[in-house]
Design goal:
With 447 residues, the chain is of the alpha/beta class. The protein has three domains: 120 residues, Probable tRNA modification gtpase trme, domain 1 (Gyrase A, domain 2, 2-Layer Sandwich); 128 residues, Four Helix Bundle (Hemerythrin (Met), subunit A), CATH 1.20.120.430; 160 residues, Rossmann fold (3-Layer(aba) Sandwich). The chain has 16 helices and twelve strands. The strands form two sheets. Strands 3-4-5-2-1-6 form a six-stranded mixed beta sheet. The longest helix has 25 residues. The radius of gyration is 29 Å and the shape is flat.
């Protein structure tokens, strides 16, 4: 990271009422001196000034804007920041950016560079930075809620607390390494081993959340399976309340897996319509059925849909053997059944619907959202939201499992050092420049 002052448009480019341009760095106040008539030495932090914004060379007025100054270290990046709230005209934005490029030691910010500077200046750790990225990307209420919790430091506090415990253990071991003639008292041996064992168990428990955090970011995967003409495409259209997929009476119309994304009561969900399950000779349809089986393997929830006029739950015996804990049995075309038959299906824990007439769809949606929400526990504010967290935690556990005080103490200390390093990779408490560009590169330019 260089010492130049950076600038970027922090709002979406295009025609809008207001656009915000952010400038951060030790020379940020130069924009006040060179593009306004304000005195940069007397300007008050966190005070809004309504000023004429002028070109550097000709002093022509570009726009009337609100200017705010945030003095280091009390800013988002920890550096001096100037924000220009201008009108969202493409011409105005272009002209302001052009003039900023003419100021010495100013340059256009790279993707995520404002947040990267905030990290380097201790304003946030990596989990908080990624929580911010998730907040910006959030599309549903639950995504927003959990991203905000991460941004507020819930994961940071958990991982930093574990790391501090390991560093305490390491400090004891280092002390005994410095005095090799001293034997570790048995009472201390018990305490150290108990601390490491408890931390290992806590991390294991944290890891065993079935990737709920990743699902919350990417979407819960729900697959609709059944025989041809069971009404899978009609059901998907009824759930999303639009013509998302083609509906036809011709068996085998759906030959590929079709994904549709939906905000389901605050949870991001990806529904997948699949090819009808049957034995076929047609190569294309056969490939579609193979894809359907693959989607079943990957699914978080499987809707087993059958034609209530001619089939039953026995149709899914093979699927139930392997995935019994994530199935919902749904009987379709129940608008044509007598009440006694409907009661019979309900006793078999089947939801009775009519996809064609949208009957029972609300009950199915309630059932799905109930199952998804039940996956969240009292500790769900501490979700593992990224695979890199999971990899680092596994690495930490592996090193903790190697730890014991019956081998050379230097080797035991190295186990603890490597375990604490694994946790440090998550929060950024070690030198990890090689992953910073990857993390912050996913941010938008003005963030």
């Amino acid at each position: 990271m260089d010492n130049k002052t950076i600038y970027a448009l922090s709002t979406v480019y295009g025609k809008s009422g207001v656009a915000v341009i952010r400038i951060s760095g030790k020379n940020a106040k130069q924009v006040i001196k060179q593009m306004t008539s304000l005195d940069e030495e007397t300007i008050k932090p966190r005070y809004a000034y309504f000023v004429d914004l002028k070109t550097i060379v000709t002093r022509e007025t570009i726009d009337k804007c609100l200017l705010l100054y945030f003095k280091a270290p009390y800013s988002f990046t920890g550096e001096d920041i100037v924000e220009l709230q201008i009108h969202g005209s493409k011409a105005v934005i272009a002209l302001v950016l052009e003039n900023l490029s003419q100021i010495e030691n100013f340059r256009l910010a790279e993707a995520g560079e404002f947040s990267k500077r905030a990290f380097y200046n201790g304003k946030m750790d990596l989990t908080q930075a990624e929580g911010l990225a998730d907040l910006i990307d959030s599309e549903t209420r639950e995504q927003q809620k959990y991203a905000m919790r991460q941004m507020e430091g819930n994961l940071k506090n958990l991982y930093s607390g574990w790391r501090e415990e390991l560093l305490k253990v390491l400090s004891y071991l280092e002390a005994y390494i410095d005095f090799p003639d001293e034997e570790i008292p048995q009472n201390d041996v018990f305490k150290l081993e108990n601390t490491v064992f408890k931390l290992s168990e806590d991390i294991r428990k944290h890891l065993s959340n079935n990737q709920i955090g990743e699902r919350l970011r990417e979407g819960f995967r729900i697959v609709i399976v059944g025989a041809p003409n069971a009404g899978k495409s009609s059901l998907l259209n009824a759930i999303v309340n639009r013509e998302a997929v083609i509906v036809s009476d011709i068996a085998g119309t759906t030959r590929d897996a079709i994904d549709v994304h939906l905000d389901l009561k605050g949870y991001p969900v990806m529904f997948t319509d699949t090819a009808g399950l049957r034995e076929v000779e047609d190569a294309i349809e056969k490939k579609g059925i193979e894809i359907a089986h693959q989607k079943i393997e990957e699914a978080d929830l499987i809707i087993c849909l059958f034609d209530s006029l001619k089939d039953s739950v026995q149709l899914f015996e093979n699927i139930e053997k392997n995935f019994s804990n994530k199935l919902i049995f749904v009987a379709n075309k129940c608008d044509r059944l007598p009440a006694e038959k409907i009661k019979e299906f309900e006793k078999q824990n089947c939801l009775c619907i009519s996809a064609k007439y949208k009957q029972g769809i609300d009950k199915l949606i309630d059932k799905i959202s109930e199952i998804i929400s039940s996956k969240f526990t009292t500790n769900s504010n501490l979700l593992i939201t990224r695979e890199r967290y999971r990899e680092a935690l596994r690495e930490t556990v592996e090193n903790l499992e190697k730890f014991n005080l019956h081998k050379e103490i230097e080797l035991s200390a190295e186990d603890i050092r490597l375990a604490s390093r694994g946790l440090g990779k998550i929060t950024g408490q070690i030198e990890i420049d090689e992953i910073l560009d990857k993390i912050f590169g996913t941010f938008c330019i003005g963030k």
